[in-house]
Design brief:
heterodimer; A: mainly alpha; three-stranded antiparallel sheet; 14 helices; 3 strands; B: alpha+beta; Penicillin-binding protein 2a (Domain 2); seven-stranded mixed sheet; five-stranded antiparallel sheet; 25 helices
């Protein structure tokens, strides 16, 4: 009994269970998405399975680190993480280091075929950094001043601008959403979040009109509005995604049994479009189960934030919640045709190291806040 | 989350069936194996249409179009290999509807199928060529050589039967759009005309479909289902190849006779076309049916050239594609008098009475003459039919026209002649099991009113609308007359109608239908060519039973009178000189139809030669009709040929019957053959 109570104190059980279940489902889906294809190419069908398990193990270690780290040390580490992220984001823009995937320079190639995506780590750096600044002077319960807000915005703006330059529209939207949410939750004057929201709206409009967006991004936006506009590329992907999910029906075709998945008709089905595998093989039931698990995580993030005694912890949790929430909606929304096409991975499920690491570190941060209330 | 769940509910529950179908479409590919098309057989089991296997060279437009030079170099090399000129090969691989200057396409005809079917450029490549192409696929990109079935019409006993058989062709874009019980596959072969068209569903069979599941690289991953092809059934017809050959030969002989011009004093005739039909009077089955001019039905499959295709429909060549037997409409002339006899009988004229047959008959200020202006004085009606007196009919028709009110028809007008013609089915299709039959025309009061409505502006404005050549005083006078009362049946129209002249027209098929009915006691049969359906294994699927359309509207007394009258045409009437000494009694009626209008070369059109007959008179089995357009007189041109047809059927040698040489020693065959007689006369 004592052990369990201890466990309950340190860990938030629903959060832990939901996360574990999602990780398990994710491993199976990544395996389902890649095994036939790799087997038919004469390669190890478990290649991606093994790599994803490795990603999760590393991610869990990072999460353990994020969970157990001392608050004070966090303050010390955050600038380092932020600085590394910014350096990484600058590096990807330099052709010698950065890899271009689908028109966006988002990756740094490492020896041994490894790639890291600095933008994923920038998410954490921004959330923690902003929370620190907004919470710092306020232990005397006064609301953050405009200067604080501007400082925190500067923390977000530098990596954000670099991400815009890649360009990675999806991540930009997610981080912006998290930024606005954190400021709104920080107790800053309401003109700040409202102003920022209007600013982003104007920004989005200007970006599309002036043509800052690359052609591929415009096409993606267009194909969201009119899926037939570009049947060969992004429209094709979206159509295939919808057909694959729809053909799963209520009960799904069964794990490993989806012909659309096994025929690999949806591009990027083990990463950005992993949800189509769930849709086809696990059906409506499976998809709803996944949505419930995500809801539990978001709900727990909110609960932890509310229970937290210090403003820093609360803001971090709110930031993570906003990040997860927007990323989940963006990704699944894209797969089912509710959101435009962006290249963001689905937390916990998509194959990928950087995303998995950052996501699990964020869970670690939630638990850190939880254990410290 | 709720939005996502809602959307998922739509995708995976509400609209799931739609997406499941879409997914299946994406993943599956159909490999279609064409079914073997059923044969068309004659009534003894001889194949009239078969499938042959040839080495087919195809060009895939969807592949060569993607080449930098649009496949020109490939086609040039192929032309060299096949030893054909490049333009015609280029032309053969163009779709009909692609706009290309004719000088680029040589003499070749365009491809009537779709772009996604490999286009056959030859069906009869040698093995050497096929090997050469198969081994150098890098040179002959998009070109394939494979054994493939094609339709072949072996013409047993020298019969041609082009118009009866029709032909086959590739599925066109239009065919694909047409709604069918079973959707077509692009590589199927469809019947396009004749029996091939009419019984296509039965002959075509069902292609085999193997549905495989593919991945995004189009690599097959599994077989979803496999349906083997089901061969089409054989169609047995009532056509007898031997008789068909005789009929075709005799039609040709009649045409030659007319063109040669030694039959009568009027000399050579144009004889541009003709038809001949033999019908089994007890069933309505067609035993032979010929049309002139004809063509080789194999030209379609051997890659018809542009010139051949144009010729088939050219007026200068008398439109060989047209089947005169069921699409050619001509004034029936005196053969129509069997209808007039019924009209006269109904109007109360005594069939055994005596009538005046003067040389001419005056209607108003117009004189209507007997043929060759002979007057014979008083004759019995039967004798009047035998010698084909026209003037006695003028008088009867004129009297009846007056009784009906003349130019101002009474409300209770009897219209004996029109009703009789209508009762005989004039102006109505026979319903034969061949496509595109013409209905002919019954030029009654209603027709005339409609005709006037369409043409009155022209006639009333003739001076301005007619061409210069048409502005003769005679034609102007006629136009004026037509403008004033063209909507009314005038006395001239009425008397012409009674002798089968004027605007009423019939097809030879309608004629044989009526004469078969006169022969069999009054039953009107729907003419049929198809007799039965037999599986490739030789089992009878079904017999196509003859269908009675109705009875001739005629009393026994009148029928007896007509049978006697038609016999007397042979014994001492217009056809006597042509049928003298026949050991089998035949009954017939000759007809010589006036035709208005001019030929392409400006000459006036010659008369239509008709001979409608049946025999043996006592127990009729066959009805034979021959018609030669612009062929002269009925007996003179068609008489000897019809006689020869009967002689072949009965095995008549001079004045004796040798049934061993008869085509039908004991009447038309009554049992469907289940055995196919191996085809020995194939090329």
């Amino acid at each position: 009994m004592k052990n369990i109570r201890l466990l309950r104190d340190r860990f938030d059980l629903p959060l832990l269970v939901a996360t574990s279940l999602l990780l398990g489902i994710g491993v199976l889906l990544v395996y389902a998405a890649t095994r036939d294809w790799y087997a038919s190419a004469g390669e190890d069908p478990q290649f991606y399975l093994k790599r994803q398990i490795l990603n999760i193990i590393i991610g869990l270690l990072l999460a353990a680190g994020a969970m157990s780290i001392d608050y004070r040390l966090l303050r010390a580490y955050t600038p380092i993480l932020w600085g590394l992220s910014v350096i990484g984001l600058i590096a990807v823009l330099i052709p010698a280091f950065g890899d271009s995937v689908n028109g966006a320079r988002a990756w740094i190639a490492l020896p041994g075929g490894l790639q890291i995506q600095p933008a994923e780590f920038a998410k954490i750096a921004i959330i923690v950094g902003m929370s620190m600044i907004l919470a710092e002077k306020r232990e005397g319960s006064q609301d953050p001043t405009s200067l604080d807000v501007l400082q925190s915005l500067a923390v977000a703006a530098i990596p954000l601008l670099l991400i815009v330059a890649q360009p990675d529209l999806g991540t930009t939207v997610i981080i912006s959403a998290a930024v606005v949410t954190i400021i709104a939750a920080s107790g800053a004057q309401t003109r700040w979040p409202i102003g920022l929201l209007s600013l982003s709206a104007i920004g989005a409009y200007v970006v599309i009109r002036i043509g800052v967006l690359d052609e591929y991004q415009l096409k993606r936006l267009q194909s969201f509005v009119d899926p037939t506009a570009d049947p060969q590329s992004s429209g094709y992907q979206l159509r295939q995604a919808r057909i694959t999910i729809g053909s799963g029906g209520f009960f799904g075709k069964g794990l490993f049994n989806g012909p659309q998945t096994n025929g690999r008709f949806v591009p990027e089905q083990h990463t950005d479009f992993i949800f189509t595998v769930a849709g086809e093989e696990l059906g409506f039931l499976g998809c709803i189960f996944i949505l419930v698990l995500y809801s539990i995580i978001l709900w727990r993030a909110l609960v932890i934030a509310r229970r937290s005694n210090d403003i820093f912890g609360r803001l971090v949790c709110i930031g993570v919640m906003a990040w997860f929430g927007f990323q989940i909606f963006e990704n699944i929304g894209m797969a089912v045709g509710l959101a435009p096409m962006t290249g963001v991975p689905l937390p916990f499920l998509s194959y990928g190291g950087s995303s998995m690491f950052a996501t699990l570190m964020a869970v670690g941060l939630l638990l850190n806040v939880h254990s410290r209330r | 989350m709720i939005a996502l769940a809602g959307r998922l509910f739509y995708l995976q529950v509400a609209a799931a069936p739609k997406y499941k179908t879409a997914a299946l479409e994406i993943q599956s590919r159909n490999i279609v194996t064409p079914a073997i098309r059923g044969m068309i057989l004659d009534s003894s089991g001889k194949p009239l249409a078969v499938n042959q296997v040839g080495l087919v060279i195809t060009v895939d437009r969807s592949k060569i179009d993607g080449l930098e030079d649009k496949g020109e170099s490939v086609l040039r090399k192929l032309a060299k290999t096949l030893k054909v000129d490049y333009p015609s090969l280029y032309g053969k691989t163009r779709l009909c509807g692609e706009k290309i200057a004719p000088e680029l396409t040589g003499k070749a005809r365009c491809w009537n199928g779709s772009r996604y079917q490999p286009i056959p450029v030859t069906l009869t490549a040698t093995e050497d060529i096929a090997l050469q192409i198969a081994e150098h696929s890098e040179i002959y990109f998009g070109v394939e050589a494979s054994p493939q079935g094609f339709r072949f019409y072996p013409a047993p006993d020298g019969s041609n039967s082009a118009h009866v058989l029709g032909y086959v062709g590739p599925v066109s874009e239009k065919d694909l759009l047409k709604k069918r019980d079973r959707p077509l596959f692009v590589n199927e072969v469809l019947g396009k005309a004749g029996l091939e068209y009419q019984y296509d569903d039965l002959l075509r069979g069902t292609p085999g479909v193997k549905t495989i599941v593919v991945d995004r690289r189009e690599a097959a991953t599994s077989v979803l289902k496999e349906n083997p092809p089901i061969s089409g059934d054989h169609l047995v017809t009532s056509i007898d190849a031997k008789l068909q050959a005789v009929v075709e030969e005799q039609l040709l002989a009649a045409i030659a006779r007319a063109r040669e011009g030694s039959v009568d004093k009027k000399g050579a005739r144009k004889a541009d076309s003709g038809a001949a039909i033999v019908m089994d009077v007890k069933t309505g089955r067609i035993l032979a049916m010929a049309s002139y001019p004809t063509y080789d039905p194999n030209i379609w499959e051997n890659g018809i050239s542009q010139k051949q295709a144009t010729d088939l429909y050219s007026d200068a060549k008398s439109v060989p594609a047209l089947s005169r037997a069921l699409q050619g409409t001509f004034a029936p002339a005196s053969t129509f008098k069997v209808v007039s006899v019924v009209a006269a009988d109904r109007a109360g004229y005594d069939l055994n009475g005596t009538y005046d047959c003067p040389a001419q008959f005056k209607v108003g200020n117009r004189i209507f003459k007997n043929y060759e202006s002979k007057g014979v004085g008083l004759v019995k009606l039967q004798q009047g039919i035998a010698i084909s007196c026209d003037t006695l009919w003028y008088k009867i028709a004129f009297d009846e026209w007056l009784k009906d009110g003349g130019l101002k028809p009474k409300s209770g007008a009897k219209n004996y002649f029109y009703t009789a013609a209508k009762d005989f089915g004039i102006g109505k299709k026979t319903g034969i099991d061949l496509p595109s039959e013409s209905s002919g025309r019954l030029a009654d009061r209603q027709w005339r009113a409609n005709w006037y409505e369409r043409n009155k502006n022209y006639f009333c404005d003739y001076q301005r609308r007619a061409t210069k050549a048409q502005l003769t005083p005679y034609l102007i006078a006629i136009a004026k007359e037509n403008c004033v009362d063209g909507d009314k049946v005038r006395a001239g129209d009425a008397v012409n109608f009674a002798i089968g002249q004027g605007d009423t027209t019939m097809t030879p098929l309608q004629m044989v239908q009526i004469y078969a009915a006169l022969a069999n006691g009054g039953t009107v049969w729907k003419p049929t060519v198809a007799w039965g359906v037999v599986t490739p294994a030789g089992e009878k699927v079904r017999e196509i039973t003859p269908e009675k359309i109705g009875k001739l509207p005629i009393s026994k007394k009148t029928l007896t009178f007509l049978n006697r009258a038609l016999r007397s045409v042979i014994t001492d009437g217009t056809a006597k000189w042509r049928f003298d000494g026949m050991p089998v009694a035949i009954s017939a009626k000759t007809g010589t139809g006036e035709v208005y209008g001019k030929n392409l070369d400006g000459s006036a059109k010659d008369t239509t030669s008709w001979l409608a007959s049946y025999g043996p008179t006592e127990k009729p089995k066959y009805a034979v009709v021959m018609m030669v357009s612009q062929g002269g007189t009925g007996s003179g041109t068609s008489g000897p040929s019809v006689r020869k047809i009967y002689e072949a059927i009965f095995g008549i040698q001079g004045s004796k019957i040798d049934s061993t040489t008869a085509i039908f020693p004991s009447g038309p065959p009554r049992v469907i053959p289940l055995r196919i007689i191996p085809n020995v006369s194939a090329k």
